[in-house]
Design brief:
The complex is a heterodimer.
Chain A: H1 2-21, E1 45-47, H2 62-66, E2 72-78, E3 84-92, H3 101-105, E4 111-113, E5 128-129, H4 131-134, H5 147-150
Antiparallel strand pairs in A: 1-4, 2-3, 3-5
Chain B: H1 2-41, H2 57-66, H3 78-95, E1 102-107, E2 110-114, H4 122-143, H5 147-178, H6 183-188, H7 195-198, H8 200-213, H9 225-228, H10 238-262, H11 274-295, H12 301-331
Antiparallel strand pairs in B: 1-2
The chains are: A alpha+beta, B mainly alpha.
Chain lengths: 176, 332
């Protein structure tokens, strides 16, 4: 019986490879044939805008602090109406490891990952993306979120006038 | 008289160049065919970037090999190290001299045998050169001054002593049945019935032995990539490695041709011209080599020695005995 087992064990793999020989290869031939990555794919970072079309980024430096490879740098600035923004915002994609920690740190959903994965360049210096390269004119994964409508810091609405907010509590009215 | 001689010489020269070119071209395209077929067996397309369907890939490989550094280890035995790859390729090419691939042609009122050299001891020539082929491997591994190369060449030698005897014994009944050592006569003797039908046991032994002879899976112990780096050609690079490589694939063509000559009836076959039958059969055997490489794991070399000495050799002797008895009974 041992001999029979050995003989059939020799033929089985031959039969399997012969069958696979006539099967279609599963290869995706990349430059000609491109696959759309899943929506939550983590590729190039983008700076999104809120529904009003204004920049979401409030230049809080949390993304820069969260970044494990220190590829994000920025400079904060402030509008006349008190709205903060990044004077310049720089991501070095030669360093970026596409971990997505910056997007988790971001309190305003400004920095997000996109599915645009073809960012290879010959010159590493051309992988340093400035703010105008990163900024897009849509809301990314959340089209409706608007930080200043919820923040209660009176930039685009008076304090306490935002959605689902109420005015400041007068702490002294509880005094006897 | 002078003209006669000139035409004869010219015809022989044309034949030589044609055979040389066809064998080398076949070897180059067998590399591509192997990569394509192995790829398809693993559900990937194989090389398909250079030219349509990757058909210029052998040329790209050649350019790559030629432009690589010709590296020699400091401990190497210089002369032998440089000489060994050439020996492998040369011996492989020379073996093809005795392969008859078509019945004699009649051109300009003369008979032109479709074989480089119709030796009356063609079988012995083939056996001798298949033993010589291992010299290139052994000397290359020995001269490299590297432990992996040395292990590879020792394995090649131990492999040779295990299969060589059984291979001779597998061919012996064929010689007895054909009553000749000439490969042309052996093919002629199969005009009615190929020897695979009358000598099935001999055929099986021969197939196992040529797998060992080709140093390919399942008997690729001399170069076993994942145990001893690349075995005997670990230290070789560039075109010297290329010569080992080409030698292996020429060997594939030759072993396919030899199987065809000894057992599959040579150029005999219905309808199609003889040369097509011969090429088809030889290439089918080469395909089987590639197919087995895609399917079977590598054996240990003690297993090869076991099967060579304890199974194939007694079976070969038994086959010899039975064939001899049958021949005596039929003639007496």
């Amino acid at each position: 019986m041992g001999l029979w087992r050995d003989i059939s064990g020799t033929w089985k793999p031959m039969w399997i490879t012969l069958r696979y020989l006539f099967r279609k290869p599963v290869t995706i031939e990349y430059p000609e044939q491109k696959r759309t990555p899943p929506p939550r794919y983590r590729a190039q970072l983008i700076l999104t805008r809120d529904p009003e079309g204004k920049e979401r980024c409030v230049a809080c430096y949390l993304c820069s602090a969260a970044c494990p490879v220190d590829c994000i740098s920025l400079q904060a600035a402030e509008d006349a109406d008190g709205r903060r923004y990044a004077a310049w915002f720089r991501v070095n994609f030669a360093r970026c490891i596409f971990c997505g920690l910056c997007t988790e740190a971001c309190p305003t959903l400004a920095i997000q990952t996109s599915i645009h994965y073809e960012i290879c360049k010959r010159d590493p210096l051309s992988l340093v993306f400035e703010k105008e390269d990163l900024l897009v004119d849509h809301g990314g994964k959340d089209k409706f979120y608007n930080f200043y409508q919820h923040a209660g810091i009176g930039v685009c609405k008076p304090r306490g006038g935002g959605d689902g907010e109420y005015g400041p509590v007068d702490v002294k009215d509880l005094l006897p | 008289m002078m003209l006669e001689l000139l035409i004869s010489g010219l015809l022989i020269l044309i034949k030589l160049v044609l055979i040389f070119g066809v064998v080398l071209g076949l070897a180059a395209y067998l590399v591509l065919a192997e990569r394509k077929i192995l790829g398809r067996m693993q559900m990937r397309p194989g090389p398909n970037r250079t030219g349509p369907f990757g058909l210029i890939q052998p040329l790209a490989d050649l350019i790559k090999l030629l432009s690589k550094e010709d590296f020699m280890p400091a401990d190497a035995d210089k002369l032998v190290y440089l000489f060994a790859p050439g020996l492998t390729a040369l011996v492989a090419l020379l073996t093809f001299a005795v392969v008859p691939f078509s019945p004699p042609l009649h051109i300009f009122g003369r008979e032109l045998p479709m074989v480089v050299c119709d030796l009356n001891v063609g079988v012995l020539y083939f056996l001798a050169f298949s033993s010589l082929a291992v010299y290139g491997v052994v000397l290359g591994g020995w001269a490299s001054g590297s432990k992996y190369a040395l292990i590879g060449s020792i394995r090649a030698l131990s492999q040779l002593v295990s299969y060589e005897l059984a291979m001779g014994l597998a061919i012996a009944p064929v010689i007895m049945a054909a009553r000749s050592f000439s490969l042309t006569d052996i093919v002629m003797a199969q005009s009615q019935l190929p020897f695979i039908l009358t000598q099935p046991l001999g055929f099986l032994i021969f197939v196992v032995c040529i797998f060992a002879e080709s140093k390919r899976t399942p008997f690729d112990m001399p170069e076993a990539e994942n145990e001893i780096v690349a075995g005997f050609h670990t230290e070789y690079s560039g075109m010297r490695f290329g010569l080992f490589f080409v030698g292996e694939y020429i060997n594939l063509v030759i072993l396919g041709s030899m199987t065809t000559v000894f057992f599959l009836g040579g150029w005999h076959g219905p309808l199609l011209p003889p040369i097509v039958w011969f090429a088809g059969k030889a290439l089918f055997v080469a395909f089987v080599f590639i197919w087995v490489r895609g399917s079977q794991p590598r054996l240990r070399y003690d297993q090869l020695m076991n099967i060579g000495w304890k199974v194939l050799l007694p079976l070969g002797l038994l086959n010899l005995l039975v064939t001899g008895a049958a021949l005596l009974w039929m003639n007496g």
